Amino acid sequence: MTPRRNSTTRGSSAVLLTVAFGMAALSGVALASGLSDRDRESDPKVLHLPMTTDGPKSLDPVEGSTTYENRCCSQIYDTLVQYKYLKRPFEIEPALLAEMPTISDDGKVWHFKLKKGVHFQDDPCFPGGKGRELVASDVFYSWKRAADPKYQYKSYWLFEDTIVGFDEFKDAQEHAATFDYNAPVEGMRLINDYEFELTLKRPVQQFMWKLAMFQLSVVPREAIETYGNRFSRHPVGTGPFMLKKEDDWKFGTSLVLHRNPTYREEYYPTEHMPEDVEAGFTKAAGQRLPIVDRIDISFYVESQPMWLKFSAGELDYTTVPETAYNDAFARRSGNLKKSYSDRGIVAHKVPLLDFIFRGFNMEDPLLGGYTDEKRALRQAICLALDWDELNEAYYNGTAIVYDGMISPGMDGYPENGRLPNAFRGPDLDRARGLLAKAGYPGGQGLPTIDYYTSNGATSERMAALLVRQLEKINVKVNPRLVDFSTLIESVDNKKAPFFSFAWGSDYPDAENNLALFYGPNEAPKPNNFNYKNAEYDKLYEKIRMMPPGPERTAIYEQMRDMVIADCPYAGSMARIRHYLVNPWLLNYKPTETFFTWMKYLDVDDSKRQGAYSR
Amino acid sequence: MWSFILRRLLYNIPVYLGIILLVMALLRVRNPVYAYLGKNADEKQVEQFEKSFGLQDPFIVQYGRFLWNGAQLDFGESWKYKGTTVREKLLASIPPSLSITVPALILTTMISITVGLLSAFYRGRWIDRLLVIAAVLGMSISFLVYIIFGQFVGAFLPKQAGWGLQPFEISGYKPWYTMASTDIFGVTVPYPSHISPTTWVAFCLLPVLISVIVSMGYDTRFYRAVMVEECNRDYIITAKAKGATKNKIMFVHMLKNAMIPIITRIMTTLPFLITGSILLEIFFGIPGMGRTLITAITDMDYPMIQGFTAVIALLYILSIILTDVLYALVDPRVRLS
Fold it and tell me: In angstroms, what CA-CA distances link A160 with A153, A164, A217, A543, B330?
């Protein structure tokens, strides 16, 4: 008996030790994963975030194009690289990659190394429902989808004229009976499961930014083949969050994202800006991502209920609707009102990468052309326009009026947004002088100009303002208020002599804006102005290959000034988005340039509860 | 009666086909592809899109295809919501709309008829004037004002003030029932297995109340006019002469004889129960038919617009036929011939 008891005792001790070690190991894992002593099941951390729209239309990255699809897909999928969360100006870091790609001396061959052990989210499309490991062929498969006619080439522009043989692959597949994903592409070389190589047609620096765009996310072939068209509702990725069931996305109402338990090992960044310390963005450094367990995103077509919900403490942050601006901010100082700051609410102003302009069709017989007289006519129109008045009337004076086409925050953006050579109005005397130089003294003999803009109450009022401003120099404008489809068609067909458009940069590099004036990009491509300047085009081709630096910035400025002199547009303006953040939302550094930031967010439920019971 | 219904159905087939033809033709006046693909779509993309969705086929082929598929309740796949059929969207958006419109119609009709009766009975007296003024006032205020005010006072203030009673959500929608199905003689019949009245109150009652308040002004005035006309009829004088009580005159004699215009009003409203209230659905974030249709129009989602229109037109035609049948049922003077 005794020996048996002894053995039992020894056994018990062993079990206890094992349990103790197990517990210690588990708590270690728990701490590393940011779980601490919190039970994720019974006490989940939940974010309540708004989205001012009726939501995404598809959760398939290759079909996505809007910022709303970007916001949602960026949580579910991963790209090879991502934006550094806290770093400004923006920089890129590896996401699915183990390290940044190495680039050959001639800039054409890019070598990629994937992280090992990255798994797709568990889903019935995989054997046993367990997500398999992501490998290099998944990257090629995902990118080839952009060339599949089934997806109407919505995302192919990201690859166009970039990878050797990819355009040819696309053309060949277009006429094939079935799309062959196994067909080789000359510039895509698989080395092994974790390494691959791309050969570019020419060195393109900006390709790195494109690699961070959500349309280039990696998806598993099994899911596409299992769900077909329904993949857009049943997404499977490697991102920090996932849908547990299709019903998690209620069209037009809400989207519930759950923490992906198999998310790759990633930690809150330690690299930050000096001001981030005071803002409290550095406290979570080293914490395992994602921090929260669930994100409840609700969609608002009208901003009024969103604003009320934020004010009632039901949303963690909100953008400030135009109608509520004066409610939140002091009109003169632009500071957050005391009633908000007393509640611990913090305001953030996020400049958007906007280029809002009024464009001239450079092929139009009246407004287009490159002679001194034609230039003078366009310059006169630019000088008659008062962008500050527009800003005050429609943007509460909060937008940024600037010279040139390079949006605020990018290399080549002028200091204080002002340039001495720009034709920024209102300067009516100079405008009248230039009008006379153009051959229309006092506006005499100048035919009425057709101005195309989209219909809608605000556009109509903005057009009326433009008409009134140009009347001051006796330039008559006929506003053509058309639906957006007609506006696009008119500009694409070069029928609109003068039109209202805007450009939101895809990535924070001025090359994206300078491309709008590159000759081969003429309509229907993004050069809506049909601007052609051989010297400009040569410079553009040069900067595409140049790495960031003072030399490249100097060329950006040179190109900017060339366009200003030729005046193919009147402008410019960039909007500022105002965010109000409740005190319980932690680590939120608002940006609209990328949307992978939800995994860094945390929530202090004790503060939230306090607010509710107030 | 059945031959009448069949005949009316046959008469209405050309009307129905004409409605669909008109909608499809109007939608094709402008090419939707540019709006759908965005401003930088190249010719190849446009061509590919048109090919994928059969837009390159002659109009008559597109029309015939839509009718043929529509007859099998297949309205195609949404352009915008990939992987989602129009039928799915239709079925998903009808219950939220009905959750608001059916209670709103019942409440509005009951209250308005009662108020109309009262007003007509006391015509010219202070009670009638008061009710008429209230109705006109109610009609004069914009629907939007009611919604914004209702959300603020009904939902936001109780939450902000931290009152114990916070019955309404500011916006949003959660299904207040769960559906189950059972097999009856081999046929799968769906039925609501669990109903949560508190969920309905939280998400639906406030929009219902706003809808009732807005509609009451119009309906009360209409029913009052109907009742006033009935008040002057000989049978009312006869009933009074015979010593019938006020209640009996109002709720038995007058109400019964006023059923034709009441039915007409209610029946013409029926199709709109399905289409829902666009403003209410947008402001309250209710994923109903009205909001879905408006979104489809702004998105230029042709299959959705065509599918929704086909269903709404069908409901409208059916409600008109049903109205005629009901006339014959409530008024023996009406013959279905």
Answer: 10, 10, 17, 18, 70
Tens digits of per-residue pLDDT, A450-479?
999 988 888 999 999 999 999 999 999 999
pLDDT score, position B40: 62
Question: Where are the extended beta strands (E) located within chain B?
Answer: 177-184, 187-195
pTM of the full structure = 0.85
Mean pLDDT of chain A: 90
Q: Identify the band that residue B39 occupies on the pLDDT scale cut at 50, 70 and 90.
A: low
Rounded alpha-carbon distances, angstroms, from residue A477 to A154, A530, B207, B209 = 35, 21, 45, 48
B38 vs B234: CA distance, rounded Å: 68
Strand partners, B94: none
CA distance B181 to chain A (A): 18
Strands (E), A171-289: 188-192, 195-199, 241-242, 249-250, 254-259
- Using a CB-CB cut-off of 8 Å, the residues of chain A touching B37 are 152, 154
Q: Is A274 helix (H, G, I), strand (E, B) or coil?
A: coil
Q: Which residues of A touch B282 (CB under 8 A)?
A: 301-302
Give me Rg for the CA atoms of chain B: 24
Phi/psi at A421 (nearest 5 deg)? -90, 0
Please tell me if residue A254 touches chain B, with a CB cutoff of 8 Å: yes
Helix (H, G, I), strand (E, B) or coil at A318: strand
As given in the structure block, the two tokens for residue A314 are 């039901």
Cβ neighbours, 10 Å, residue A189: 16
Could you tell me the sign of the dihedral formed by the alpha carbons of B234, B235, B238, B240, in that order?
A: negative
- Per the CB < 8 A criterion, the answer to whether A503 and A525 are in contact is no
Q: How far is CA B6 from the centre of its chain?
A: 25
Please give the ipTM for the structure prediction: 0.84
DSSP state string for A382-406: HHH--HHHHHHHHHTT-SEE-SSSS
- Closest in A234, A309, A526 to B171, CB measured: A309
B42, B282, B300 ranked by CB distance to A485: nearest: B300
